[in-house]
Amino acid sequence: MKILCIGRNYAEHIAELQNEVPDAPVIFAKPDTALLQRNQPFFYPDFTQDIHHEVELVLRISKNGRHIEEQFAHTYFDAIGLGLDLTARDLQSKLKSKGLPWELAKGFDGSAPLGATFKPVSEFPDLKNINFRLEVNGELRQRGNSAMMLHDFSKIISYISQFITLKMGDLIFTGTPSGVGPIKVGDRLVGYIEDEPFFDVSVK
User: Fold this and answer.
1) Which residues pair with 5 in a beta bridge?
2) Where is the Fumarylacetoacetase-like C-terminal domain (predicted)?
3) What per-residue string of b and e applies to 119-158 under the rule 16 or more CB within 10 Å gives b?
4) Which of 53, 89, 172, 175 is 20 to 30 A away from residue 16, measured at CA?
5) Phi, then psi, of 148 in degrees rounded to 5
6) CA gap 58, 173 in Å, rounded
7) Which residues pair with 191 in a beta bridge?
8) What's the rounded Cα separation, in Å, for the pair 8 and 22?
9) Domains located in the chain, CATH noted
């Protein structure tokens, strides 16, 4: 099982981090040890002092595919969930300033909390109009809608599959909207798709 992630997929998030707008999806990966499931707590590591939350819609791949045409890409995922791409922002900035890969800032243990359930695609009336949000200690921190994506689900799947074979069970984190910010020990992070809670993670 692979965890593939899309960076810079929401214009306002790109602006808040002062990044350039990419002309193609930005792809990075997390190891399976990054997964944090069943609302397990996240334990703040000692190699960073600045972890940021990034809430994202997550696609679950339902069959193997490579060189997938965009018009058929919707048949390669069967469910949508919600997760967090936790990012050690201080470590990421240090690595980027040296022109180095920043996997360590994205792929550390527990950096991909994932909701306990996935919702079948058939239960979403419009895949280009999915509301989701993150609340931290009951306060709204991030709000997004799939319509705001620079690259939609089909584009993402088609693009990735030109380089990397997708396999059943793979997960794709589709990017985060604006509002990212730091978390701290004692925080409670609750994520929603529409008004349905998908994860409830405490920071220890």
Assistant:
1) 28, 173
2) 2-190
3) bebeebeebeebebbbbbeeeebbbbebebbbbbbbbbbb
4) 172
5) -85, -5
6) 5
7) 134, 199
8) 7
9) 3-203 (3.90.850.10)
Write out pLDDT tens, residues 116-130.
899 999 999 999 999
pLDDT average, residue stretch 4-13: 85
Residue 175 DSSP class: -
Sign of the CA dihedral running 15, 159, 60, 43: negative
Tokens of 28: 């990075």
Reading the block at residue 117, the tokens are 């359930």
Q: What is the pTM of this model?
A: 0.95
The radius of gyration computed from the CA coordinates of the chain, to the nearest angstrom, equals 16
**161 band by pLDDT with thresholds 50, 70 and 90:** very high
**In angstroms, rounded to a whole number, what is the distance separating the alpha carbons of residues 40 and 108?**
16
* Token output for 130: 């999915």
Can you give 30-65 as a three-state secondary structure string? Answer: ECHHHEECCCCCECCCCCCCCEEECEEEEEEECCCE
Nearest residue to 188 via CA among 179, 199, 196: 199
